[in-house]
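Holo prediction. Input below; ligand is flavin-adenine dinucleotide.
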Amino acid sequence: MPQFDSLVVGGGFFGLYTAELLRHAGHEVLLCEKEADFMSRASYVNQARVHNGYHYPRSFLTAVRSRANYPRFLKEFPDCVDRSFTQYYAVGRHYSKVTARQYYRFMRSVGADIEPAPPRVRRLFDFDHVEQVFVTEECAFDPVLLKRAMVARVEGAGVVCRLGTRVETLHQTAEGGLRATLETPTGAETVEARHVFNCTYSQINALARRSGLPVIPLKHELTEMALVGIPDELRGIGVTVMCGPFFSIMPFPPRGHYTLSHVRYTPHFQWEDRPGERTLDAHGVFDRAEKTTSFPYMVRDAARYLPVLTQCRYVESLWEVKTVLPLSETDDSRPILFARDAGLRNYHVIMGGKIDNVYDMTDEIKKVLSGKAMDA
Ligand SMILES: Cc1cc2nc3c(=O)[nH]c(=O)nc-3n(C[C@H](O)[C@H](O)[C@H](O)COP(=O)(O)OP(=O)(O)OC[C@H]3O[C@@H](n4cnc5c(N)ncnc54)[C@H](O)[C@@H]3O)c2cc1C
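Structure of the complex:
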């Protein structure tokens, strides 16, 4: 039976990054991805924002961690980011959970650059609905370039990669190792590893359930990102209206279009994994779900704030399950989930709420490898 030091389940950005880290620590690593390609699920279908704190005026910790991770991401992946546009954050006049003054002061308190937007940009907004517009410093990542960079790194490091290979179940062996059954293109296989890292995002509990392991509370949403062609006035501009039932429009580098998302219409429905209750296979829910675009609702509402949006041209929609921690509901925070020994010795669960959270994960992995206790 093949034996590895570590098995990484899931070839999204977090799985690839974890696999490389483990390999550099001297582990023989097997990385299994059930889809035909790496980074084809949430790591591709997302808004591609490299967060720099501006999205989190209600969570000091997430804003501060984003600000710490942003320059690290730009430094590590300079060729995978699109900095060709300026990101503007507006604050809604009605229904916003923060005022423009609170927003400005909060961003200053976390050290973020923030200034009122210039008149040529302000003119695009309807100030009956928007209280203030700020110019900020934020960019987008290109998930296709990021995938290429990460796959080259992982393969260069000598990680054994298996595409089209689904990890079905995990069990502890009598010797204290972990045995995994795999569903591969050529049939079922079994492998053993000392450590297993479950980096399957929305599928974390699907693997746990099949293996009789504890369920981690997670909230899932079926989400739609509308890809749109933009009018000339919006070229070189990204806009996010905070902080409530508003919207974002910004470049999606791999397609050359913009993504339009709306807090009210992007999630089509939601469900939760709760310990003690039956959990659903999130990708199974995704496959069965009816996917009818909400673009007309998104654009009609968003155009009240940014009237030029009526000239957007709908191209198509990208769909994916978005997974967050239920605790994030209150303050919209995006901490990393790192559950060590999550029901079996040396079985660890990792879920990054956003791409730059990989840097919050690396310390935890290093602690696992050095056998140190986790922080309380
Ligand atoms: C609509 C939306 C918008 C978002 N916007 C942003 C944003 O603007 N900025 C940002 O930073 N973050 C954003 N995010 C969050 C970001 O996309 C995720 O944090 C990140 O992609 C998670 O990476 P991952 O590797 O954990 O998950 P994934 O990329 O989903 O990777 C998990 C992989 O595990 C595989 N898998 C599942 N089960 C198994 C199994 N049993 N065996 C083998 N393989 C398996 C899956 O096929 C998948 O490829 C957004 C997410 C969504 C859905």
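The longest helix spans residues 60-76. That is the main takeaway for now.
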